[in-house]
Automatic annotation (TrEMBL):
Keywords: Cytoplasm, Nucleus, rRNA processing, tRNA processing. Its main location: cytoplasm. This is Ribonuclease P protein subunit p20. GO terms for biological process: rRNA processing; tRNA 5'-leader removal. InterPro entries: Alba-like_dom_sf, Pop7/Rpp20. It comes from Aphidius gifuensis. Belongs to the histone-like Alba family.
Length: 155
């Protein structure tokens, strides 16, 4: 059984952890007085060569879209992935590189994106609040190393 000095130390450590948490996201997320509404992340401008990968989109459909862009003369495409979709974005870029037998190369950049959640009150006493959190993102530039025209990808 822990003595009272150990209990005081644990309480002090927990207080320091809570005090150092800038946005108190741990406390806000566990609050029963609010409903969390996640906002969409800010995205880059949508161009023809941008592919935004999600966990919900079919991998084969994303691969076909990339192949179509490359076969229509695009010299590069940029694949964007956020959070759990980073793995799918990497797999998509590596599959494209493998399918094109060394005529494509990849350039990878990672970053952190700030996401904002709205905390809507469920009772009249609570106020609207914002919760900010960070999430990892990846941007993969897939470009041609040899300009040989459009390649056709057959399934």
């Amino acid at each position: 059984m822990a003595d009272s000095s150990d209990e005081k130390t644990i309480i002090e450590i927990n207080k320091i952890i809570v005090d150092n948490n800038d946005d108190n996201s741990a406390m806000k997320l566990n609050c029963p007085d609010h409903i969390i509404r996640k906002r969409l992340p800010l995205s880059f401008p949508k161009r023809n060569k941008d592919i935004y990968v999600t966990k919900k989109t079919n991998f084969q459909a994303q691969l076909n879209k990339c192949e179509k862009l490359l076969s229509n003369g695009e010299s590069e495409i940029i694949i964007h992935g956020l959070g759990a979709a980073i793995n799918n974005a990497c797999n998509l870029a590596l599959t494209l590189k493998k399918n094109h037998n060394g005529t494509l190369d990849i350039d990878v950049n990672t970053s952190t994106v700030k996401l904002i959640d709205d905390l809507e009150p469920t009772t009249d006493d609570a106020d609207y609040e914002l919760n900010t959190r960070n999430n990892s993102s990846i941007h993969i530039r897939v470009f041609r190393t040899i300009n040989i025209g459009g390649l056709k990808y057959e399934q």
